Amino acid sequence: MADIFDYLTWRGDLKFSQAPFNPVDNIILSQFSYLPLDGIVPGPEDKEGISIRSAAEMFREKLKKNKSNIKSLIIYKDDPLLFSTLASSNRFGDCRLFGYANYIDTAREVQFSALCIDLGDSSCFIVFRGTDFSFVGWKEDFNMGFTETIPAQLEATEYLEKMAPMIKSPLRIGGHSKGGNLAIYAASNCCKKIQKRITDVYSNDGPGFHKSVITSKGFAEIRDRIRSYIPQSSVVGMFLEHGCDYSVIKSSKIGLLQHELYSWEVTHNDMVQVGKVTLGSRFVDKTLKEWISGLNHKDREKFTNALYSILKASQAKSIPELEKNWFIAAGRMIKSLGNIDDATRHLIRKTLGDLFYTAQRNINTLLIPEKNKNE
Length: 375
Prior knowledge:
With 375 residues, this protein is of the alpha/beta class. Helix content is 44%, strand content 13%.
């Protein structure tokens, strides 16, 4: 059950010029994008860059000076270890980081972060971060259920078109979770000149799209360059439609925890693949798609906005903040229920009831005999 840290032990001494970029490098850099690099990596307006090795040293210094603040920004607990491991390796240590963007716009309900990584092999990897701890980020994810285009997708396209002219080498684009979705959307909607320079587009358990995206000319142009991966028990990656094939990856964890890239099993130059997603994943996928298709566009939006308004009533802005003051936050959310009008309250009850009924109707998905699992 080897993971990305084992891979770095096996391949960390080999530069990309010695051992070509492979799918494991993709998930490593997609995970790396979650690190808080503000004040360390130059932004999109700056043509200069900084090596991963130098960036890691600056990160350590910032951690010493303001440990509590930096720790609150770390989404995955193993990210600091990943940072230091990459910095000490021949493969990643000299990779140049530049074009770092990271911001949240509450009014527009957008959470966006991206980074360019010069690999030193005459290619550049542009990576988009997935959803962070902010409620705005999660609300944006929920908006995908009723909005054909979310602001972060437009930001990703604009970012790609801004950074590509500054890069002379071929382009790889990727990301984890929402970041994978952004990578595909940006590659589908950028100008043809940039599209021709893209060699691969990686989506690692990223949600899909509405029909208008996967039937577009831009999507058709890059379809054969999309490398889509989901874990056995994928939930996020099964959301909406993908319009292309995907590979199912073995994970060392169960259920929703398989979404974490640290749990994905790897070999010396690839990820360990299995034939099918689990019955549980198929059950969730079938249930959510039927449930969403049964809601009209207006009701989807009202339901999402109503739940978000209850969450906002907690006065917390992120999941860690909510957990820290859970008792007070819960009281505020319960109190906010009294401010919801009767029609909205009825809609919430009915929508959740429909979800439960749909799940009951699809329970037989979990009862498929063993012999049919691979059919």
